[in-house]
Structure formats: C-alpha cells, structure tokens
Automatic annotation (TrEMBL):
Gene3D superfamilies: Histidine kinase-like ATPase, C-terminal domain. InterPro entries: HATPase_C_sf, Sensor_HK_TwoCompSys. Keywords: Kinase, Membrane, Transferase, Transmembrane, Transmembrane helix, Two-component regulatory system. GO terms for biological process: phosphorelay signal transduction system. Its EC number is 2.7.13.3. The chain crosses the membrane at residues 29-49, 56-78, 98-117, 124-143, 155-172. The lineage of its organism: Bacteria, Bacillati, Actinomycetota, Actinomycetes, Actinomycetales. CDD domains: HATPase_UhpB-NarQ-NarX-like. It catalyses: ATP + protein L-histidine = ADP + protein N-phospho-L-histidine. This is histidine kinase. It comes from the Bacteria.
C-alpha cells in the first residue's frame, strides 16, 4: 500500500517541468525549445546524409535524440534519460566512423544538464548526467578521439559548447534560487505568524471568555434561587457557544496545511502574572484548593528583557489558568527559579482521573502554544501526567 501510494508522487516528480515555485515555463518557452530542437535535428541530419553510415538504426537514434531535446522544456528528467540513452545507442551505431559534423546526441545531455540547473534541480543530477555522458563518449570512441581528427574535433566542439551552456545555466540559476529561498522564508514567516495569531487569540480572547463562563457558573451554583439565575444561564449558554465556535476556528487555523498570508494582528500586553495568579487562587479557593507560589519575583530580574518577560508572563499565565480549569482538590504549586543563565518554572496540581475535561473550558491549544513559545525562545518544555498528578516544567535561556 505504501509503495503504491508513493508511485503518483514519483510520476509527478519525473514529469515536473521545474523544481521552482517562483518561476514556471510558459508556452513560449516550450515552443522555443521545440524550435531549437528542430533546428539542431535538421542540421545534424543534413550533416550526416553524405556519410556512409546512414542506415535506419543510425538515423532513428538521431531522430529520437532530437525528440528528447524537443520535450526538454516540458519534462527535463524524462528528456535527460532519453538523451542519455540515445547517446549510448548513437555511439554503438557509430562505431569507428566519424560523423561529418558535430553530433546532436553528444550535445543533448549537456543541454539537459543546463536546463536542470536553470529549473532548480539538484546539481548532482545535472553534473552527474554530464559525467556519465562524457564517460560514455570517451569509452565509445576509445583512442579514436586522439587518432581521428574528425572525432577529436567533434569531441572538442561538444566540450566547448556544453561548457558554455553550463556557465550560462549557472548564471541563470543563482538569482532564481535566491528568489526561491526568499519565497520559502516568506512562507515560513507567514506560517509562524499564523500560529502566533492562534496563540494570541487563545491566550487573550478565549481565556477571558472561559473565565467569564466559569465565574458565571460559580455564581449560578452559589445562588440557585437568585432572580437573575435564568438570564445568567442563558448568557452562559451563549458565551459557551461563542467560545466553542472560536476554538473550532483556532483549531482549523492551527492545523491548516497551506500557508495563507495573514496580516500581523496587534496584540495587547498580557495581564500581569500577579493578577492572573490572584484570580486563579480565588477560583481554586472556592473549590477548596490552596495554591502555593514561589519565586515569581524572578520575572522582574534586570537580565530579563521586556520582550522575553512578556512571553514568560504569557506562558506562566496559561499554566496558571490551566490549574483553575483542571485542578482537583489537593496541593497546587507554581514555582519559578532564575539562576542568571536561564529561567525555570514548574506548575503542578492534582487531577481527577475519572473526570473528563469540559470541551468549552479546554481546547488542547494552550499547551501547544506554550510549547511553541518555549521552543521559539530556545528552551524546553516537559509535560508529565500520572493518574492523580499533572506537572509542567519549562526552561528558557535568558542570555
């Protein structure tokens, strides 16, 4: 099954006219290649007509070589194989006889290699094709390249024209490959930008809406006979629906395969970590859970720049918010340590293995966003879960 699945990709690769995404051949390019192949073939046939070796196999080999050059612009890899094969067939048909002029089969692989270079194919395939064809020509002619002046002239002509073609191809390849590299960097930037937008929306809008749902539910459960309980329940239901739709959109953006350019969204500064921790502490206290914190003042170190501090507050705020959503009765801790070289943080809380997570309260994107931020800063994130304990440990270099 896997081998069968790879076949379409292999066929597509062989038929691809280019490896570049910033440049593709147009119809006029194909027509120009066809016109050049026709002229080269007619010139080669005209030069060989007076020769004594004009048998059918010899002429058919020459015409197939012209066909290989004709399809060079459409399928360079297929054309390269065809030209290389006809070169060896041409050498077998030629024997010790010298052609009346330069041979198209001999120059064909050099032309193919030049097109491979300009179309972004690997240099290994291009120059490998030249070396194989050159080796075949030398072996096919044996010592006649030296002893036979006509063969020596043909060999020298092929080397000269082929080398010029390769030099021109390299000059054309350089700017195209630079443009290709720039396009790939742009795609990577757009992808990172899209993922950053997902993280920003999750860490701001979704978080605040989730907190609103949780507070409303707590208020409704604390005062079931209050006059506005019905309206509060209806509002909670609407917010839950909005949060669920937003989470679905964020998942689609996070899993999107193609890189769609998105404008950078201005993101507001995160709430202070102290505010988030205090809010989480009150939420947990309402469920009989005590949150212990230590080392939060490490974020105020002069070694931590404003940009890095904002990212750290985002990450630690997300870990703290996760506690408020998932912690079960038991000890909960948030510890931060800073040794001057790196900052490490640990978030740990008790979980109830028998309770399923509320799909509105949890999208699964929070820790993904934290991991993305940590890795972008050159740090590491370790998540471990036991039947009754959930622990996250992150480490980020600060120098």
């Amino acid at each position: 099954m896997a081998r069968a699945a790879r076949l379409p990709g292999l066929v597509t690769g062989l038929l691809a006219p280019t490896r570049l995404t910033v440049w593709t051949p147009r119809l006029r390019t194909h027509l120009l290649c066809l016109a050049c192949a026709t002229l080269l073939t007619l010139a080669a046939v005209a030069a060989l007509v007076p020769d004594r070796r004009t048998d059918a196999f010899y002429m058919v080999t020459l015409l197939i070589s012209g066909l290989g050059v004709a399809v060079l612009s459409v399928a360079p890899l297929i054309s390269s194989g065809l030209c290389l094969g006809t070169l060896y067939a041409f050498l077998l048909a030629l024997g010790d006889a010298a052609p009346a002029g330069p041979s198209l089969p001999a120059i064909g692989p050099w032309l193919c290699a030049s097109v491979l270079l300009t179309r972004g194919f690997s240099r290994l395939s291009a120059y490998g094709l030249v070396l194989i064809s050159l080796g075949g020509s030398v072996i096919g002619h044996h010592s006649n390249v030296v002893s036979n002046s006509a063969l020596a002239t043909d060999f020298t002509y092929t080397m000269l024209v082929g080398t010029i073609c390769l030099i021109v191809a390299e000059l054309m390849r350089q700017p195209r490959m630079e443009a290709e590299a720039a396009a790939r960097r742009h795609e990577a930037d757009m992808r990172n930008q899209r993922l950053l937008i997902v993280s920003e929306l999750h860490d701001t809008v979704v978080r605040d809406l989730t907190q609103a749902v949780m507070r409303a539910e707590q208020a409704r459960l604390a005062q079931p006979d209050a006059p506005l309980v019905g309206e509060l329940g209806a509002m909670t239901s609407s917010v839950r629906t909005a949060v669920d739709q937003l989470r679905s959109s964020l998942r689609s953006m996070n899993d999107m395969a193609d890189q769609v350019p998105l404008d950078v969204l201005a993101s507001s500064a995160p709430r202070s970590l102290t505010e988030v921790v205090d809010e989480t502490r009150r939420t947990l206290a309402a469920r009989g859970i005590s949150l212990e914190t230590a080392g939060l003042e490490a974020l105020e170190s002069a070694r931590i720049g404003p940009g890095l501090r904002q990212q750290l507050v985002r990450m630690l705020g997300e870990l703290t918010t996760n506690m408020a959503k998932h912690a079960a009765p038991g000890p909960a801790r948030l510890v931060v340590e800073h040794d001057g070289m790196s900052l490490e943080a640990m978030s740990s809380n008790t979980v109830d293995a028998g309770t399923e997570a509320d799909p509105v309260a949890s999208s699964g994107l929070g820790l993904v966003g934290v991991r993305r931020r940590v890795e972008a800063l050159g740090g590491t994130l370790n998540v471990s879960r036991t039947p009754d304990r959930f622990t996250v440990v992150l480490s980020v270099p600060v120098v």
